[in-house]
Amino acid sequence: LLVVIPASAQYDPKALEILDAMSEKYKSIPAFEANFAVTMTNDVEKVKEEFKGKLTVKGDKFRMVLPEQEVINNGATVWTYLPDAKEVNIDNYDATSDDVNPSKIYELYKKNFKYLYLQDKVEGGVMCEEIDLVPEKKDAQFFKVKMFINKKTKNIQSWTMFDKGGSRYKYSITKFTPNASIGDAYFSFDPTKYPGVEVIDLR
């Protein structure tokens, strides 16, 4: 125990080298699309849920499509569209927030996290480098984020977020399309294209 605790809370230079290479890879891509599968498990409550989604990123803009909602961010404004409720919530985007931004998962480690390289391990049939990110803040919502980074391409293969309630959220990339051709209009919500939608402006 005395060995494990200090080792798990540090700024590991090997982990930093891998994370920097991964981050540079994503920053060099003007726009990309990623299909992903999510598995949420909680062993205590015996819960397991699975769903699929799609993330499109272009610079600071992103659009994430999930089964029950869409989150659209143009870098200044965030729209959260709930199809079943026929409503969209509009808010200002706070770039300084500690919330995990799915379009910036490749930069997560740069702010308020310690990191540790664990091992090379096969994940999803691909040899990956396994790295744990641990938040510096004790009151963070997630106490750990585990990342598997493709050893050859430096693409993110998967990441798992562990919250204090015992839930684990694993995001696995099932398809990755770099250099996607996407117009800026895709990253804003046009209510005229959604007849009957209720607009709730929280700005």
Percentage of residues in DSSP E strands: over 45%
Shape category: globular
Q: What series of H and E elements makes up the topology?
A: HHEEEEEEEEEEEE
Give the tally of β-strands. 12
Q: Percent range for helical residues?
A: under 10%
Report how far the terminal alpha carbons are from each other.
48 Å
Annotation field: number of helices? 2
How would you sum up the major sheet? 12 strands, mixed
Structural class: mainly beta
Could you report the average pLDDT, rounded to the nearest whole number?
Answer: 89
Q: Which sequence of strands runs across the widest sheet?
A: 7-8-9-10-11-1-2-3-4-5-6-12
Low-confidence stretches: 1-8
Taking all Cα atoms into account, the compactness measure Rg is: 18 Å
Describe it for me?
The protein has 203 residues and is mostly beta strands. Helices cover 10% and strands 49% of the residues. A 12-stranded mixed β-sheet has the order 7-8-9-10-11-1-2-3-4-5-6-12, with helices on one face. The longest helix is centred in the first third of the chain and has 15 residues, at 13-27.
Task: Describe this structure in a few short sentences.
The protein has 203 residues and is mainly β. It has two helices and twelve strands; from the N terminus they run H-H-E-E-E-E-E-E-E-E-E-E-E-E.
